[in-house]
């Protein structure tokens, strides 16, 4: 039995003038503790699929099972990180990271302590009383990661979480996120259009084709790369080979 | 080694320049005030303007002192102030609540859309006579006037602000499984505080209009009544006194709302 199972997901968006099929016949399985990437050109329905897995809306067709249960009933097990940090500017860092607990109504002192220890691990101790605008982009995205992890989700959705950051911060955060997720044994799905990021961070990569979004091909990342941190993986020779391979596939997709 | 000194000196000069400029601004503001009242007084004394219609600052002042001594000014001012404050708080509160209801139910907002447009376009003071007949010629109907004049525009402005809140904040909350009311409380309402405060500023002015017109119609107490009474007995000193008092207190209310704004929006 797999941790997450998607069966024949179809999704169509309707507007007055058109019906656009965003996703067509997506089936895949994810094991617990795996790091998966969805890679593909824009408009291939990656984010739609992520939202569907997160239970934000229902697919037109198909089923999603998380630990053999429908996702609507297991919302608390899923954490979602967006492209930008979306920290609430009127809340302090402390209030921001405790938001999930507040929504769940489980704001006890043990959970709070866990939140603060996570914040400390991310190197943000002492910023609790500050407001998001006082922090840099990288720091804010780290706070957003803490906010996502505080509720102890089993499955983490990362929707291009590094795309709004500068390159250096991005590399550093990739390492931090990868390390954190590995140490907690979390399952994660990363949506990205950055081939390098997908290779460096994940165990398996699904390449999507656009209009309608379909799984075009999947790549297993070799064991040698998986054991390395994202930054080290980028310097490995297999990395370049895999990069070339995926690059060619992407090119053939777009032509 | 004295690298810091010129910088400090420049800074000092800069601050000096700022204070200097501020003094001149204050000076000219005072000049305008002074020239206006002095010009008014002189032209009234010299009969350049009709003293019966335009009165004179000295006469207004005398009346002011007299009305303070016999206490009647405080009574009228008290009525008008409490009506205005209540009217504007009620208008803003009701408008925000209505906006929240519209946000809650997109279907209802679609249904009510043309009615909001009609109500917004209609001059609310035209409802005055009906309000007075319905609620009685008393404070209640005047407060209702003060509120009704601002409630629809508040609803429209605040509802628009609610709709324009970045949907990704809602997405963050929904991934935590937040209900619609939690989304409202945690994201929509706090994100729109600046808008609500700025409607508050507009509503101060609107409520004064509503209340003064209401007092014209009810004609029993208040600064608006002072104006209409002064007009009827052709005592324009009374009319002008009332106008000046209204100007002062409307400004004070506006300043208070600005103070509130600075306090509340600090964190943003």
In a few lines, what is going on in this structure?
The complex is a heterodimer of chains A (255) and B (268). Chain A is an alpha/beta fold and 255 residues long.
Please give a structural write-up:
The complex is a heterodimer of chains A (255) and B (268). With 255 residues, chain A is of the alpha/beta class. Chain A is built from ten helices and ten strands. In chain A, helix 4 packs antiparallel against helix 5 (137-150). Chain A is globular, with a radius of gyration of 18 Å. The mean pLDDT of chain A is 81. Chain B contains twelve helices and no strands. Chain B starts with a helix and ends with a helix. Chain B has helices at 4-45, 51-54, 57-69, 72-104, 106-121, 128-135, 139-163, 167-175, 180-191, 193-218, 223-232, 236-264. In chain B, helix 3 (57-69) packs across helix 12 (236-264) and helix 4 crosses helix 10 (193-218). Chain B has two domains: 4-49; 70-264, MetI-like fold, CATH 1.10.3720.10. By secondary structure, chain B is mostly helical. Helix content of chain B is 85%, strand content 0%. Chain B is flat and about 75 Å long. The chains are: A alpha/beta (255), B mainly alpha (268). The interface between A and B is medium-sized, with 22 and 19 residues.
The gyration radius over C-alpha positions of chain B equals 25 Å
Number of strands of chain A: 10
What's the overall average pLDDT of chain A, rounded? 81
Structural shape of chain B: flat
| Estimated structural class of chain A | alpha/beta
Oligomeric form:
heterodimer
Largest interface: A-B, 22 and 19 residues
CATH superfamily of the largest domain in chain B: MetI-like
Tally the helices of chain A.
Answer: 10
> What portion of the residues of chain B fall into strands of 2 or more residues?
under 5%
User: What is the count of structural domains of chain B?
Assistant: 2
Overall number of structural domains of chain A: 1
What is the share of helical residues of chain B? over 70%
Regions with little confidence, pLDDT below 50 for 5+ residues of chain A: none
